[in-house]
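Entry type: protein chain
Record version: 2
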Amino acid sequence: MTELAAAKAALKTQAVETPSWAYGNSGTRFKVFAQQGVPRTPQEKLDDAAKVHEFTGAAPLVALHIPWDKVDDYTALAEHAEDRGVRLGTINSNTFQDDDYRLGSICHPRASVRRKAVDHLLECVDIMDATGSKDLKLWFADGTNYPGQDDIRARQDRLAEGLAEVYERLGEGQRMLLEYKFFEPAFYTTDVPDWGTAYAHCLKLGPKAQVVVDTGHHAPGTNIEFIVTTLLRERKLGGFDFNSRFYADDDLMAGSADPFQLFRIMYEVVRGGGFTPETAFMLDQCHNIEAKIPAIIRSVMNVQEATAKALLVDRGALAAAQSSGDVLGANAVLMDAYNTDVRPLLREVREEMGLDPDPVSAYRRSGWAERIVAERVGGQQAGWGA
């Protein structure tokens, strides 16, 4: 098989999970701008997600956020997804939007609050059982704002204790993915601030616990591809939350702010053997001023383009340049792949899959945007906290 044929075959297997919350209204702490046609129920979010998959062929999974996507019958919700041609994916917990969590959740100094948080995480595992989901995503807003506010080591002990209880509840084929974020909303200490902290807890827990890398959760200048390489080497990379950022956790469209970084990350994924179904490639972004479905389609396409370029790196030439100490030659091999226009290649891939070569234009012609504006009148639009 030629290099090009191998790249096309790999791209046809790519799966990018889209987040249910990205289809709802979102914004900043200053303002949420509502849009017409926004879903009002988890079912309508799945309907929109199905359109992304219909036109890209690369978004078969939809992540849920509990309690934002809480329903009475999760088995029925999973059936609704399958009827639309998608499946329910990662279950994301929420321990940051309750008044009880003002001083933390799983790390809170009060045992009753910690119990409440852990019970919620256990509920999320129950939902995984009902939906057939394999991944539980954990992100904690826990931390402190002032020196001396709480005992830093004690908070790590509480974190370890809570994680261990949830870990023991995981069933066969289920995983716990621990996410980190170096600041916000806690400004003095964050209880899971970096990949090292997440890795240390996952290592102690066992093989079902892995680290998830959110590309927006790092200090400026952080070499994310080094983190990816290290976690792959240690078999502890569970997945990604893809988005772009300029300053902090901006949650912009994946690949929009720094497409070169996304390429570098995907190269390390390909080189390290991480381009498999065992690595969860998920978008985690909010669309504040742009139309939601086209933005998600464009994000999936951005991930595809970065992946295609990563697959086209001449690894033999790169290895030869590296071993001979040819600094500029090695860099040129990477840059040649990055500078390749892979859009014609991806158009071919889509056509061979029976898809329109231009997903954005195909969506616009479908009439779905006009239909949801006309039909989704009344009720409460989905958004942060709903």
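Comment: The chain has 14 helices and ten strands.
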